[in-house]
Amino acid sequence: MGTSIVDNLAVHVTCISDDFLDKYLGTANGDYIKVYLFMLRHRGEQFSKEQAADALNLTDKDIERALRYWEKQGVFESSSGSIQDQDMEEEAEHRIVRRRKVKKAAITEEDFLEAEEKIETLQGTVDDVETDEEFNSILYFARQMLPSLPSVRQVGALKFMYKELKMSSDVIEFLIEYCASAKKTTYQYMQAVAMNWHEQGVATVAQATELVKSIEESKNKKQTSRAASKSSGKANKFINLEQREVDYDSIVNLRTLNRMKNVTN
C-alpha cells in the first residue's frame, strides 16, 4: 500500500517589484492597482477582460482603461491571447447609448468665447504636441471611439483640454468615451463637458465616474417620481413641478441662440 505525502508547507506567492511600489503605488488609480495585481497573479495565463472584470468586481471598460494605462507606462504589453484590440473595437461599436443629465454648471457665453479663442490659437501650434506621446495616445483613442476621424476643431478641443485645462489623458479619454456613448461628439459638446468637469474640480477618472454615477442616479429618481405621480392619478404640485434642467445640450443651444441674436441685431 503506497503512501501519499502532502506538503503542507508549500507556499504559492506573487512577488511585487520594488520599482512598482516606488514609482506607481502612490500615483496610480486604485482600480489600476487592482488590475495590475490581477495581471501579475495570472502572469502567463490565458484570460479575457470579462473574466478579469468579474474577478475584480469592475466593468469591462475599467479593465480596458487600466490596461491602456499600464501599457502607456511601459509596465507590460498585452498578448494576443489575453485582451485583444478587436474586442475593444467591438465593444465601441455595440456600446449601449445612455443619455445622462448633468448638474447645472455656471458656464457663460464669455467662457465659451474665451475657450474658442484659445482653440483657434492652438490650432496653429501643432508642433508642440506632435511629439507628445501622451497627447498622441489621446488622438489614437479618439480615432477609435469617435464615429469619424477627429475634425480640426475636435482636435483643437482636445488640445484645449490637455494644454489649457491641464486635464490628464485618462480623464480626457474617459470624457471622449462618455460623449461617444451618448452620441454627442461635436467639438462644442465635448468642450462643454470638459469645462463643466473643470468647474466642478474633476481631476481623476474616479471623480468623473462618481459624477456621472450621481447624475444617472438623480435622473433615475426623477423618472421614478414622475412615474409614481402618473400612476396615482392625482396631481401633486410638488412632484409634478418641472424645472428646466440645464444639461450640456442646453448650454450649447443657448450659446448658439445668443450668437444668432447678436448677428440679427
Shape: globular
Total number of helices? 13
Structural class of the helix and strand makeup? Answer: mainly alpha
Write the H/E string, N to C: HHHHHHHHHHHHH
- Say how many strands there are: 0
Task: List its traits.
265 residues, mainly alpha, Arc Repressor Mutant, subunit A, globular
Describe this structure in words.
- This protein is mainly alpha-helical and 265 residues long.
- It is 62% helix and 0% strand.
- It folds into 2 domains: 18-93, Arc Repressor Mutant, subunit A, CATH 1.10.10; 96-230 and 243-265.
- It has 13 helices and no strands.
- Helix 3 packs across helix 4, helix 6 (109-123) crosses helix 9 (152-164) and helix 9 packs parallel to helix 11.
- Residues 80-107 and 235-246 have low confidence and may be disordered.
Task: Please write out the topology.
Elements: H1 18-23, H2 30-41, H3 49-56, H4 60-72, H5 85-93, H6 109-123, H7 127-130, H8 133-145, H9 152-164, H10 169-181, H11 187-199, H12 205-232, H13 248-264
Helix pairs in contact: 2-4, 3-4, 6-9, 8-10, 9-11, 10-11, 11-13
